[in-house]
Specification:
Elements: H1 2-16, H2 22-30, E1 51-52, E2 58-59, H3 62-72, E3 79-83, H4 89-95, E4 100-105, H5 108-120, E5 126-130, E6 143-148, H6 157-161, E7 163-173, E8 180-188, E9 191-200
Parallel strand pairs: 3-4, 3-6, 4-5, 6-7
Antiparallel strand pairs: 1-2, 7-8, 8-9
Length: about 210
């Protein structure tokens, strides 16, 4: 009962901060964040804070997940690429909104754990692979939406090329330890429009 109340308080906080999209809020409500959090931090599952996971990575703050999901404007017939599966929480939220989610994780242990969680929660529209996220997933490109959950000094060109015309990418940009800015990039016939959303802090995006 306490966990249900914690989730309600989190959803109310997100609403107060401006996340009013009912589809985004419903997706966050449906996904049990406690299933993606290390056992040591179960009591903090619905606090608006980032928490450590294996391989020196983190599960993002719920508010950051909500804002990034909102900025993507995912519709139910869309194909989404996620770079950086991590715990799997962001992919699980997106799976409630999109037709199919493709997610790439470079750490093999995290990849296996996330896959197990998706199977346990019967999220059958998520396809994962272990590999270099900066290269994207060219075999199934283009993507209607791309989300990157780690920060690099610049947006990988391979990801931009795999975004469909009219598609949207949400990605943090900035070196680790310095200011990072969350960008919303929309591709059109003759180039890209870029919007700065907010300052953020993410683990570094590593190629190779």
């Amino acid at each position: 009962m306490l966990r249900a109340n914690d989730k309600i308080r989190l959803l109310m906080k997100l609403r107060r901060e401006g996340i009013t999209d009912t589809r985004v809020l419903s997706a966050i409500e449906q996904i049990p964040r406690e299933e993606f959090v290390d056992a040591r931090f179960q009591d903090q599952a619905y606090e608006d804070t980032a928490l450590p996971i294996d391989a020196g990575q983190t599960i993002s703050m719920p508010s950051v997940v909500a804002w990034m999901t909102w900025a993507l404007q995912v519709e139910d017939r869309m194909k989404v690429l996620e770079i950086g599966t991590g715990s799997g929480y962001q992919a699980a939220v997106l799976a409630k909104l999109a037709r199919r989610v493709y997610s790439i994780e470079r750490h093999r242990d995290l990849h296996k754990i996330a896959e197990s969680r998706f199977n346990q929660l019967r999220l059958t529209n998520i396809t994962t692979r272990c590999g270099d996220g900066t290269k994207g997933w060219p075999e199934v490109a283009p993507f209607d939406r791309i989300i990157v959950t780690a920060s690099a000094g610049e947006v990988p060109s391979a990801l931009l090329s795999q975004l469909s015309i009219g598609g949207i990418m949400v990605t943090p940009v900035g070196e680790h330890g310095s200011e990072q800015i969350l960008l919303r990039i929309q591709r059109h016939e003759h180039g890209y429009d870029t919007q700065h959303l907010m300052n953020v802090r993410f683990v570094p995006l590593v190629s190779g």
